[in-house]
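To whoever is on call:

I kicked off a structure prediction for a single chain this morning and the downstream step that reads the tokens threw a length-mismatch warning. I double-checked the sequence; it's 90 residues and nothing unusual in it as far as I can see. Pasting both halves so you can look.
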Amino acid sequence: MKLIKSITLFDGTREKRNCYIGFEGDRILYVGEEKPKPDYSCGLIAQDVFVTPAIIDAHSHIGMVRSEEPACEDEANEHSNAILPLINSL
């Protein structure tokens, strides 16, 4: 089991402070204020972090500039560069 020591855990409805989250793969196995009993398979992979559920931006216009489209009609609000390797609108 891998562990994360969270400063703040927001589960979508409430906040918990200073708790541990234990998981394996994509399954959460433990949430609590006490660190689980020592186990050779436990590993702390992050600490003093904020943990939230995946947040999906359902309406985004980042990097959506099509070739040959007039600039006044593009759907981008990222104007530093139309081609940025780390921006993925999908």
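Update from on-call: the warning came from a stale cache, not from the record. Cleared it. Sanity check on the structure: The mean pLDDT is 76.
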